[in-house]
Design goal:
The complex is a heterodimer.
Chain A (H helix, E strand, L loop, with lengths): L6 E8 L6 E4 L8 E8 L7 E5 L7 E8 L4 E9 L2 E4 L8 E8 L8 E8 L5 E8 L8 E4 L12 E7 L3
Antiparallel strand pairs in A: 1-12, 2-11, 3-8, 3-12, 4-7, 4-11, 5-6, 5-10, 8-9, 9-10
Chain B lengths: L5 E8 L8 E3 L8 E10 L9 E6 L6 E8 L4 E6 L3 E4 L1 E2 L6 E8 L7 E11 L3 E11 L8 E5 L9 E7 L3
Classes of the chains: A mainly beta, B mainly beta.
């Protein structure tokens, strides 16, 4: 018997280079977790971040562990406007990012995310983030939230849905 | 039922004779991203922290760079260099294998190829290491083959390598 598909592409967005953000909207509520896989950078060394359901308020926190090839550091923001994905910023070339958003459709708990990003010319980092809201996630905005510049042209972001069973 | 988008392209299991490297060749150009999942150990002497593995694409060993974040349980460090390490491996300790995932987005594009690596090795009181690596192959060529090889020694029997193709539609 064929097994059910558990890693399903929902949508892919390619940045034009002229916008600060892109949005996955009308996300189906039929999966267990979400994954965004991307190859991206920014037009200036600011950041790439996530926001949920259009919430731009100070309702997020995230903790970052990052390394630049010689030193390691950690940083944290709370009561902030986004969850960082590429906190340090990369305006040089396509880096690889994978973000996991767990149990996104439940309406009981705050939403958590585990994010990784790296570009060999700049930084490698891992981020843990939280959105302090119990709403189900129906849209995700990927964008430059804190800083200047746009998502670089040709940057790609693919949203996948994962079924636990 | 929807078409499967997370497909096993090929797998390799090292036999009793060991293997100095493994290569996945003739990679189909029909996917969006690639993922390698591996569980490995080597016959090199020394401790796990002294032994690593690397990857190259299309048989080319130039134009590779990386930055790495590594935690050992007691310290954290970062380094960089002119190859793409894909994890610390256990060596000289029979039966203990390390695990790695290598994610390669847009492997058929004409952009430089960026690679993300997650690696863990754990051997009770002897060693525990976790790596996060950003690798870059500064080539516009589509990836048609990839080779994974240890810094020293050979992969031992039961080391496994799985190559998946991921479609975004």
């Amino acid at each position: 018997m064929a097994s059910a598909q558990t890693y399903t592409p929902i949508a892919t967005i390619t940045a034009s280079g002229s916008t600060t953000s892109v949005t996955f909207s009308s996300i189906p509520q039929t999966y267990t977790d979400l994954v965004i896989a991307g190859a991206f950078y920014e037009t200036s060394s600011s950041n790439t971040s996530l926001q949920f359901n259009g919430d731009t308020g100070s309702n997020y926190s995230s903790t970052t562990l990052l390394a630049n090839g010689s030193s390691v550091s950690s940083a944290r923001v709370s009561n902030f406007a986004c969850i960082f994905w590429d906190r340090q910023g990369n305006a040089t070339g396509y880096g690889t990012g994978v973000a996991h958003i767990m149990n996104y459709s439940n309406t009981t708990t705050y939403k958590t995310a585990l994010l990784r990003y790296g570009y060999a010319g700049t930084w490698v980092e891992v981020d843990a983030g939280s959105w302090h809201n119990t709403s189900a996630i129906t849209s995700i905005t990927v964008g430059v939230v804190s800083g200047s510049g746009n998502l670089a042209s040709g940057s790609t972001y693919t949203l996948y849905g994962i079924l636990a069973a | 039922m929807a078409t499967s988008t997370y497909n096993l392209i090929a797998s390799q299991v090292v036999g009793s004779g060991g293997a100095s490297s493994i290569t996945f060749s003739s990679i189909p150009q029909t996917y969006t991203d690639l993922l390698v999942v591996m569980s490995v150990s080597t016959n090199a002497s020394g401790t796990a922290s002294a032994n690593g593995t690397n990857i190259n694409f299309n048989g080319v060993t130039t134009n590779r760079t990386y930055k790495r974040l590594e935690g050992s349980g007691s310290s954290v460090s970062s380094d960089s260099g002119s190859n793409i390490p894909v994890g610390t491996v256990n060596a000289g300790s029979s039966g203990v294998f390390s695990n790695q995932q290598i994610y390669i987005p847009n492997y058929t594009s004409s952009n430089y190829k960026s690679v993300s690596v997650d690696s863990v090795v754990e051997y009770n009181s002897s060693v525990g290491t976790q790596d996060l690596v950003a690798g870059l192959w500064s080539s516009t060529a589509a990836i048609t083959s990839l080779t994974i090889y240890p810094d020293a020694g050979s992969f031992i029997q039961y080391s496994t390598f799985y190559l998946y193709g991921i479609k975004n539609s």
